[in-house]
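>> received
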Amino acid sequence: MPLIVQQKEAAELLGVSSRTLRDWQAARDENGFPDCSSGYETEAINAWRRDNQRKGSETSEAAKNIKLGTAAEKMKQARFDTRLKEMEVGKEEGTLLPRKAVEQSAAVILSSLGDWCEQLPDLIAQICPNKKSAEKVRTRLKSELDRRREQMADDLVSLGTDHQSDRIREICRLIDELHSNKLAAS
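>> returned
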């Protein structure tokens, strides 16, 4: 078999790490390792390994998998760090809003809109020429607004995650409760 000049190539053919091959070669005087001054003769090295029961540090799939796993973890951490920095920049630029502030703003807007919707049938009924048609308009509008409110709540719930859906249901429940309390007080 021809001599192999590169230590890395010889190590790959022997199924050991370059470091193991280097260590065996460094202790040549003590262990009788073959002379590799002009190149690596893999057959002689394999014979020496069998005679001296040397397995060496194998470059196995497990080692490669460990390296890949470590690289994947580093990449995951880098993505996390990048996302964190993006959020910090967004906060500094004012493009990232605190969740609580957004939820409170949405609740105020939805509550005001709900109040307006509750008043709308009465406002329109006042325009009607007679009481009978005014009551029909009021009843029909209230029914339609309630139906649409329920539909909007269902649509919002279907858009969110489970946690968001629970929050949306809770907000809708609170808005309905507020309207019920206002109607009871009137």
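>> The radius of gyration is 39 Å.
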